[in-house]
Each structure stands twice: as C-alpha cells, then as structure tokens.
Amino acid sequence: MNKGLKIILYAIILLMAPAICIAAGFDSIKKTYAGINALEAKFHQKLFIENIKKTREFDGEFSYKRSKGFLWRYTKPKEKSFLYDGQFMWQEDEEKSFVLKEKVNKEKTGGTFFDLVEDISKIDDLFTLKQESVSGDTIVLDLAPKKEGTVTAARVWIDKQNLVKKIEIKEFTGNINTIEFAGVKVNTSISDGKFIYKPDKKKEIVEQ
After folding, report:
1. What does the pLDDT read at residue 31?
2. Rounded to two decimals, what is the model's pTM?
3. Domain-by-domain residue ranges, the chain?
4. Architecture of domain 3-125+184-207
C-alpha cells in the first residue's frame, strides 16, 4: 500500500468516526456508527513537504456507502481518484495511461485500514486519545497511533454538530497533511453505481 493511500485512509477513518465517541473514550462508538450508512463531503487538502519546505494544495470530494465502498476523488489541480469497491482498490490519474487495480488482502490490512472503513468501531485499536481541548466553538482532539508507521500524530477539529471540520496528520518525514471538510452530509441517498469502477477503454488496467 503506497504512502499517499495510507494517508487518505487515515483521513477517511477520522472523518467517519463519530467524534463525540472518540472524546468519550470510544465507549459508545458502535451504537453511533451503526446509524451511519452513507456519507458525503467536499475537502480542501494542504500538504506541507518538509524536504523542500513547500505546500501543495488540492480540492476534491469524498463519498462512502456501507458495504459498497468509498470514492476519494481529487478534482484540482488535476483529477485523480481512489475507488474501493469492497474487493479492489482502483487508482486512476488523468495524466497516466493506465489504471491500477489492486486486490485488497484483508489479512495484511486487518486491524489497521480497510476493516476500519467497514467497522469504525475498531478505531480504538488504532488511536489513543492524548488530549482534548477547546478552541473557539470547536473541540480539538490530539491522537497518537498505537502502532509505529507513517503517521506519528493526528489532530481532529470537531464542530458543535459533532462533525469533523479539519484533520491534521503528521508523518515521520516531517510532512504535514491538513484536510478541511465542507458540506458534510450523513445518510444521503447515494447510488450503488458510484462505487463500481467503469473502465476507460483508452486506459490499460494493470493488476497488482
């Protein structure tokens, strides 16, 4: 699994996790998450790259439907998408002549990423709540990964409606990913077809 995809999965997990449950020590997360069957949001991402001291910015949208998968799609500065249909991860980039199709091995990713997308109640296996504070009208949660890896720390901003407004993810490289969400909608009607990859005849499908 490439590093960029891991960061996206962290962001998805933190976005979908009912924030009030994180603050409460995850106690009621199963009950809360059971009511989330679909979710949509727009996002603006800033990536600070430590080794060149520059920030890159991206815009896009995210869709999730229980038992169907998710679509994380960048729209600016170029189109790029990560589509998970429950079995395969499809990665498509407008600048590339091929599409990557990767079989998701739940045995290798179990307890970390893809199973959390389907069952966010396991989030306490991944993060420890280090601190909770208040900034204006938002709650700020500082989280630490329980396992060593790409991510060293995460911070989540929660609004009065208990919706995630912003996520900051720090990597061991010094890179910092900041993702702000807007227009978050829970349990909207989303077509199943959105999570089925539709082949582009002009592009070769490369299986990994």
Report:
1. 55
2. 0.83
3. 3-125+184-207
4. Clam (2.50)
